[in-house]
Amino acid sequence: MMLALNMLNNSDIQNLGTVTNRVLVVEDEESIRELIVLGLEEEGFNVVAVGDGQTALDKCQVQALQAQDFPFDLIVLDLMLPQVNGLDLCRFLRYKGNHVPILIVSAKTTETDRVLGLEIGADDYISKPFSMREFVARCRALLRRNRLNTPVEPTIVQFQDIILYPEEYRVMVRGVAVNLSPREFRLLELFMQNPRRVWGREQLLDKVWGMDFIGDRKTVDVHIRWLREKLELDPSQPQYITTVRGFGYRFG
Ligand code: CA
User: Fold this and answer.
1) Domain boundaries, position 180
2) What's the 128 CA to ligand 1 centre distance in angstroms?
3) pTM of the model
4) What pLDDT does 12 receive?
5) Does residue 11 lie within any of the structural domains?
6) Which of residues 97, 132, 149 is at a domain's end?
């Protein structure tokens, strides 16, 4: 099936994946740091990664702590760090009146650490090990919450008669609202943001279910079938989500 790309109205497409939010990752364990950086960069974030608290402070450009030109939109912060530890770093930024969203990522899982982290001004807390999907979702939520102060145009992604509202978790198909599960929604969002791209099942598992998902590639097929039943006029003759034999699936 050939569908011309010009059927997409560019003005209707605002790809969330291209948001360039600046994230400072402070984590001394190299393997975890690399995983986080990879996960965030794949989602279109601009990432600066450091391995200790002092370098993190330097990167924050201490003289610009309260200024509008603070160099980051989000800080991902480990607690147990060489030199300046995460709690002290967080406390210091808040003491200086800096309100950058802070997501604490820590192996410390006691209630006390969690509560303490939030009490000294962190915005959210995620324990290691974590799923990359959940981690990225939390980063996005923090950035979104931070942006609420400045009104933004609602984002929509449209392809022919399917309209997806990423921030409202809402989908309209031929003018009618359809109910999608979170997985189905994420799958459709990914497809619509990458029209005509061919996805292998492994890639979809990785993107939609997360790196640590242990399961069958058939899971993807099942979700595709459900999605087709909700989108397609005739699910047995799909027009939107087509099967690419030997590779996987394509949208559009
Ligand atoms: Ca650590």
Assistant:
1) 157-251
2) 10
3) 0.52
4) 34
5) no
6) 149
Q: How far is the CA of 116 from the centre of ligand 1 (A)?
A: 17
Query: pLDDT under 50 in the chain at which residues?
Result: 1-19, 150-152
Is 221 found in the same domain as 183?
Answer: yes
Give the pLDDT score at 109. 65
Distance 87 CA to ligand 1 centre (A): 12
Which pLDDT score, from 0 to 100, does residue 169 have?
A: 83
> 23 CA distance to ligand 1 centroid (A)?
18
Residue 86 buriedness (CB in 10 A; 0-12 / 13-18 / 19+): buried
Residue 213's contacts (CB-CB under 8 Å, 6 or more residues apart) are 131, 205, 206
- Is 10 inside any structural domain? no
- The alpha carbon of 108 and the centre of ligand 1 are apart by a number of angstroms equal to 9
Res 63: pLDDT: 66
For 19-68, how does the pLDDT look when each residue is reduced to its tens digit (9 = 90+)? 458 999 999 999 999 999 999 999 889 999 999 999 999 998 766 776 66
Q: Are residues 145 and 220 in the same domain?
A: no
Q: Based on the domain organization, do 244 and 221 belong to the same domain? A: yes
Ligand 1 centroid – CA 76 distance (Å) = 12
The number of folded domains in the chain is 2
Residue 160, pLDDT score: 92
**Contact between residue 25 and residue 36 where contact means Cβ atoms under 8 Å apart:** yes
Residue 166 corresponds to which amino acid? Answer: P
| Dihedral pair phi/psi, residue 10, rounded to 5° | -55, -35
Shared domain for 29 and 92, answered yes or no, is yes
In a domain, 187, yes or no: yes
Mark which of 149, 182, 206 sits at the end of a domain. 149
Burial of residue 111, with CB atoms counted within 10 A of its CB: 0-12 exposed, 13-18 middle, 19 or more buried: exposed
